[in-house]
Amino acid sequence: MEKLAGLGLVQVQPTRPKMFAALPSEVVVARIIEIARERSEQFAARASELQATFTGLRSRARGRHPFLDLALGVDGHIRRHLVPLAAARKRILSYMEAGDLMAIDTAVRDGFPILRRIAKNAAEHGVEHRVVFGFSYRSAGDLVEFLKVHRHDLRQVTGVRYSGELGHPFHVVDDETVVLPLDHPFVKEGRFASLLVRDRELADSLAEGFQELWRKAMKSLREIHVDPRGHRTRARRIERASAPAGPSRAANGFTDRHGGTLGPAFIPWSLRHAIGQEHEVPGM
Predict the structure, then answer these.
(1) pLDDT tens for residues 170-220?
(2) Cβ(191)–Cβ(74) under 8 Å?
(3) Is beta strand 91-96 parallel, antiparallel or unpaired with respect to 254-255?
(4) pLDDT exceeds 70 at position 13
(5) Cα(159)–Cα(132) distance, integer angstroms
(6) Are 115 and 201 in contact (CB under 8 A)?
(7) Is 76 exposed, middle or buried (0-12, 13-18, 19+ CB in 10 A)?
């Protein structure tokens, strides 16, 4: 009642205790209209300040208006963020690592043939799809097995190359949409989330990086040279050779025919054995 009295909507008598009385209805209605008018005039007077605030925020964002979606878990990543790859119309650039292979294997095993959908769409619309597989000593065998198991669904890929791991897999779809998978070693499934970002500037930046990675990556796993002196000797030689060049040169030991360093220092027997066999695997 005291609040209504402060607004002038009731009468108050400052006694102990305070006593209140209703005002005539026409007085109450007139007072409500007056309050609304006062507040609208105050808002209009401060509108210029609000506009200046929004203008400052827009200038700090440099005119970019990205759309972002977060998906949790392997299932969310596949069903929400890889599905756009199956709807591409021009181009897909993919850099994939062990976490991506595991997520795709899990989806296919659960009855969601995402690779087949991507391949079918690419065939129907003539989509360019280039893939760089990043692998390490630990994941080399899994990569070979993945390529063998899914070789039929990978035939629509227009180009495949191989590189050492970067640690940051991504997909760029139609030069506009970016998928950024997120992995963590403490998570049992590895992949705990992924981001889908629709931002042309980010897509252009990743596409430019992909082109450089594509240029340096191996065209075939047969380009790997195995050093018979073993892992430690090879690792020390690579470390010494890479020290002056700084962080831009990898110290992993896979070399292409031009001497570029591309992967781990030791090639596991499983990978050498697989490379030596004849399989219908891209780049092998």
Answers:
(1) 999 999 999 999 988 888 878 889 999 999 999 999 999 999 999 999 888
(2) yes
(3) unpaired
(4) yes
(5) 8
(6) no
(7) middle
pLDDT at 26: 86
With a CB cutoff of 8 Å and minimum separation 6, the contacts of 253 are 227, 234, 235, 238, 261, 263, 264, 265, 266
Contacts of 46 (CB under 8 A, 6+ apart): none
User: Amino acid identity, residue 34?
Assistant: E
Q: Rounded to the nearest 10 degrees, what angle do helices 114-125 and 98-109 cross at?
A: 100
For residue 78, what are the contacts with CB-CB under 8 A and spacing of at least 6?
A: 103, 104, 106, 107, 112, 114
Q: What is the pLDDT of residue 95?
A: 95
Closest CA to 190 of 74, 97, 49, 52: 74
Class of domain 67-224+267-276: alpha beta
Q: Express each pLDDT in 63-97 by its tens digit.
A: 567 788 999 989 899 999 999 999 999 999 999 99
The domain locations on the chain are: 2-60, 67-224+267-276
